[in-house]
Automatic annotation (TrEMBL):
It comes from the Bacteria. One of its GO terms (molecular function) is sequence-specific DNA binding. Belongs to the LysR transcriptional regulatory family. SUPFAM superfamilies: Periplasmic binding protein-like II, Winged helix' DNA-binding domain. Residues 1-61 form the HTH lysR-type domain. InterPro entries: LysR-type_TF_proteobact-type, LysR_HTH_N, LysR_subst-bd, WH-like_DNA-bd_sf, WH_DNA-bd_sf. GO terms for biological process: DNA-templated transcription. It comes from Marivita geojedonensis. This is LysR family transcriptional regulator. Keywords: DNA-binding, Transcription, Transcription regulation.
Amino acid sequence: MDVQSWDDLRIFLSVARHDTLSGAGRALRMDPATVGRRVARLEESLGQALFVKGPQGYTLTEAGTRLIDHAERAEQAMQGAQSVLTGEAGTLTGQIRIGAPDGCANFVLPRVFADLSKANPDLDLQIVALPRVVNLSRREADMAITVSPPTASRLSYQRITDYKLHLAASKTYLSTRPPLTSVADLRDHRIVGYIPDMIFDKELDYLSDLGLDRVALASNSASVQVHLLRHHGGIGIAHDFALPFAPGVTRVLTDALSFTRSFYLVRHAEDRRLDRITRFAAALVQGVRAEVARLESLLSNT
């Protein structure tokens, strides 16, 4: 494949992943009109339409869907070649985007990414914090941290670390409410938690087994829930690693109720051949493990 052919495929992939010329243009740092012309040129050279433009943006045709796999293999090959040419040793360069649940993104990744950035000054790091699973097939990110292993066969994963969650509330809230001596007493308290119909992973459904049929203060964001606890909103399940960022919030009923969940690092199976991505993944896993352990250790005596 010549360089020009790859460049056309690169633009095709960006439009397929962003659905719009403007979105693809921002990602590619190109004018949307130029993106449109390049897509039209590729379609003309192939003699087939690759997209249908509709109210929701650009949708792949059958021919475009068939081309995706070939284009992604070409992308992998070009990235592999770049890795070889830039050398396997030394610091990392370029741009890497990580998708993560917002709790991990807000409380764990900032310190990890700051350290990685200091160690690799020519590396641009991006965190996509979403209260849902990041779509790697659409290349919303280069890799993702999830709370469940993926089911898609084209994705590979590794478990990063376990983390713990407990009931928590502010000391001010607890001082003004009925005593909390057992899980049954939760019925006398305002519950903070996820919006029930927006729980995107079964591993986040902490309250269903507690017989609680009402969540008085709800959000699809774990970090928002922590702030609700900080402002004396009620009692809820919180990550232990988040509580050092919530002064005045304390764990309760730790002997009666505790959850353990895991973080997984997910990426395309083909990416394992890319030394740059593999080295970054190893550093990320090590950093997340260390940061979760550090933050949880701050609560070991509380």
